[in-house]
Amino acid sequence: MTGKAGSGKSTLMRYLYDDQRTKNYLRNWANPSKLVIASCFFWNPGTPMQRSLTGLLLSLLYELLSQCPEWMRAVFPWRWQSYELGILDPGPYTNTELLDAFRKLVHEAAASSKVCFFIDGLDEFEGDDTARTEIVDLFKEISDSPDVKVCVSSRPWLIFEDSFAHCSKLLLQELTYQDIERYVHSELVKDVRFSKLKEEDASGCSRLVEEIVNKAAGVFLWVYLVVRSLLQGLQNEDGIQDLQRRLRLIPADLEEYFKHMMSTLDPFYLEQAKQLFDVAMTAQEHPLSLLTYSFVLEPDPDFAIKAKVRMYERAEIDDRHQSMERRLNSRCKDLLEVYNADREPLFFSRSVDFLHRTVRDFLQTRAVQDMLNEYTSDSFDANI
Description:
The protein is mainly alpha-helical. It is built from 20 helices and five strands. The protein has helices at residues 9-18, 20-30, 53-67, 72-75, 77-84, 95-112, 129-143, 158-163, 177-189, 192-200, 202-216, 220-235, 240-249, 254-263, 270-283, 290-296, 303-306, 314-332, 357-363, 366-373, and strands at residues 34-41, 113-120, 148-152, 336-340, 350-354. The strands form two sheets. A three-stranded parallel β-sheet has the order 1-2-3, sandwiched between helices. A two-stranded antiparallel sheet has the order 4-5. Strand 2, helix 7 and strand 3 form a beta-alpha-beta unit. The protein is globular and about 70 Å long.
């Protein structure tokens, strides 16, 4: 499965992995053998382990052995013997050992079972092309067995396009045209002003929707951002020609669009924007609460030390939430978003995270870091 950044690869992979119909079809394929399913979702913003070969192999081995513990002795014979001899810590796993164990395990499994792997985000693997080739070769090797199926996803990088050239493939941007068209139309017609424009110029509104879908090239995230921009234009009483001009000014490339969004930041707020982005990147896979962010921009750096120890009233928390959400919008231009976390207590009921993982990648580029560093001091430490 391949597609541009923001086209929905991970969403579709997770949907396929979780959907009961996938398991039903795989059981039909496996029958009468036992079905074993394992997965790994690479996560670039996460810990080094979550984007490494070691993490991939440990994750897959754990899932396979959890379902079939009887294979453990054959897969890790010397470690099993060490435990029997009372050696509780025989040392860390090496990639060589893990690769050997994984191949043994797949071979053992295929003798009596059918195995299916779901691997998302090969492009988010941390390593050079040599390391990526090693992973690609590994999955091509095991998928040669008629008892093994492998479903992988990545951006359309040459190394993956060449390696999987002869495999069955889904190109997301070729499959999502109608879905994007329905989404754009349904979101715009919810706006009373757009409905009125449609009554006055139905063909112009249809052309606008068509232009959005064609320009999107299958990237749902880009569509989401564009629709939001057009809805803002409708609030400003933009006519159909204004909306078309607004659309044509928006870059078609997602990274260029992020640059466009950054260019609209008020220079007065760039130092605070950099601080908020740094906190979000430092938080990694554990998004912080909106209330936590409200303390980041306190003018007194010793605010937490000087503050009295007391419980916040609900009204105070609500005020901080409302104020900080507006400040995030003005400082970060929707690159950071507020989500309802559905958690108790109220302190943690709302959290802040990047609009999409591609935003984090964009903010970590040298050009963006250099631009933001011009407006910031070295005294701010996002880890404190």
